[in-house]
Amino acid sequence: MSTAHTDTDKGERVMVFAKGAPDVLLERCSHERVGEDDVRPLSDERRAEILVAVEELADEALRTLGVAFRTLPRDNLNGQIDEEFEQDLVFLGVVGMIDPPRSEAQNAVQQARKAGIRPIMITGDHPITAVAIAGELGIVEPGTAAVTGKELQRCDEAELRELVRERSVYARVAPEHKLRIVRALRDNGAITAMTGDGVNDAPALKAADIGVAMGITGTDVSKGASDMILTDDNFASIVAAVEEGRSIFANIQKFLRYLLSSNIGEVLTMFFGVVLAGVIGLTGEGADVVVVPLLAVQILWINLLTDAAPALALGLEPADPHVMNRPPRDPQSRVISRRMWFDIFFVGTIMAIGTLGVLDWALPGGFFAGSGNLIYGQTMAFTTLVFFQLFNVFNARFERRSSLKRLGTNPWLWGAVGLSLILQIAVIYVPFLQQAFSTVPLSLNDWLVCFLVGSSVLWLMEIRKVVTR
Questions:
Q1: What is the Cα–Cα distance from 403 to 108, expressed in whole angstroms?
Q2: CA R_g for the chain
């Protein structure tokens, strides 16, 4: 960048001051200033000495800025600086600036890499400075060479696609290089997020899958071209957003896993209860009378009891501390995978077998000779299915990990389960609710049978998870 200023001592003279990358600026300089007034021609040997000094500063992770000037007669300026005025400059020196990464940046980069996210640095800084900072952050191993804009310029599209697979630091790049890098990454099948703050970053922000603009230093153009804006201009916020997004998606899966498996359990219970009514001793007074294992009002109550509070409490499940240790999800994968469907039907089948088994145990005839009447048998089946679903809510918390871990992290879930259990007890013992739901009081032994059978869904899924792991 160059600016022009009137020399107050010599009103007819204009001073043009230029700043930029030292190696780029040196190419435009023909002289250097030594001391206060001595201006000497800039020899090749002196250029090499200056570049060595620049590299020494860059090795210390300092951002370097060259400064130069020239004088012009006022009549030559005409109100603007032309390209020709930025030639034959007098080199003044180099500034080494400390621009340390934020304290949380290194940890954020490590988290991103654990999560299968590959951070890439694209900068206009000196290549050595870029590598030093990238090494300090853990983006690359120390000593890794950066790819320069000149190297990118020589690459065709096929070569660039191969280059971006391996290299993660790019220095002395122009805005069009950023766009090419983004396109090459996307051509390789990578989901790409691009950060930027300037007007020149807008094309790359627009081309990326997710454009991320800086909210503090970003221009209106970059914000308009982006998909999201960082209000604190902090890379760690991007990683935190990824973690939050993964947690939300995981909670959606928990919600679906729980509701679908519980509802399939109800459907299978009703279907096989009718189909196998004679086998399990579920018969009516007449041969043509169909007796169902559960009444409609009981099914509605189960849906109200277990699909409301416990299911909503799953949506408040705190983030799994291991969520950022998993690889990214395949964008082509379904929300409900084939394995998840298997688990859903596996749990639903356990619920149906257990509920109908308790019903058979409570009624005369069938596989187990019971002594109770139909209302007693339906009350037992009703309560068992409620217990199944209350235990199943803990199953749904993790797909592979044990459901017995981190049990105390979600008090909302325990509150929802406790409330559901209290309401179920009320349905069994409060007289007007007994009449409404066709239930009878249960003994302590009856409750124990319902509890043990209902808990089987938890233990059987724990065994399946162990085998899977």
A1: 29
A2: 36
How is domain 2-98 classified at the architecture level of CATH? 3-Layer(aba) Sandwich (3.40)
Q: What does the domain layout of the chain look like in residue ranges?
A: 2-98, 105-233, 239-468
Q: 253 near 245, Cβ under 8 Å?
A: no
* CA angle in degrees (0–180, nearest 5) for 393-399-403: 50
Q: Which residues contact 272 (CB under 8 A, 6 or more apart)?
A: 352, 356
Instruction: Give the residue with greater pLDDT, 232 vs 372.
Output: 232
Quote the DSSP letter at residue 456. H
CB neighbour list of residue 254: distance below 8 Å, 6 or more residues apart? 314, 315, 317, 396, 397
Across 312-344, b (16+ Cβ under 10 Å) vs e yields: ebbeebeebeebbeeeeeeeeeeeeeeebeebb
What integer pLDDT is reported at residue 212 of this predicted model? 95
On whether the CB atoms of residues 13 and 72 are closer than 8 A, the answer is: yes
The fold for domain 105-233 equals Rossmann fold (3.40.50)
Distance, CA of 32 to chain centre: 52
Residue whose C-alpha is closest to residue 319's, from 394, 241, 391 = 241
pLDDT band of residue 337 (cuts 50, 70, 90) is confident
Q: What pLDDT shows up at residue 379? A: 94
Mark 224-247 as b/e (b = at least 16 C-beta within 10 Å).
ebbeebbeebbbbbbbeebbeebb
Paired tokens of 119:
């951070």
Contacts 24+ apart (CB under 8 A), 249-252: 249/329, 250/317, 250/320, 250/323, 251/314, 251/315, 251/316, 251/317, 252/315, 252/335
Note the pLDDT tens digit of each residue in 392-425: 999 888 888 888 888 888 899 999 999 999 999 9
pLDDT in tens, 310-321: 888 888 888 888
> Can you tell me the distance from the alpha carbon of 244 to that of 261, in angstroms, rounded to the nearest whole number?
26
SS3 content of the chain, % helix, strand, coil (to 5): 55, 15, 30
Residues 239-468, CATH architecture: Up-down Bundle (1.20)
At 50, is the secondary structure helix, strand, or coil? helix
pLDDT above 60 (res 286) = no
DSSP class of residue 384 equals H
State the average pLDDT over residues 46-57: 91
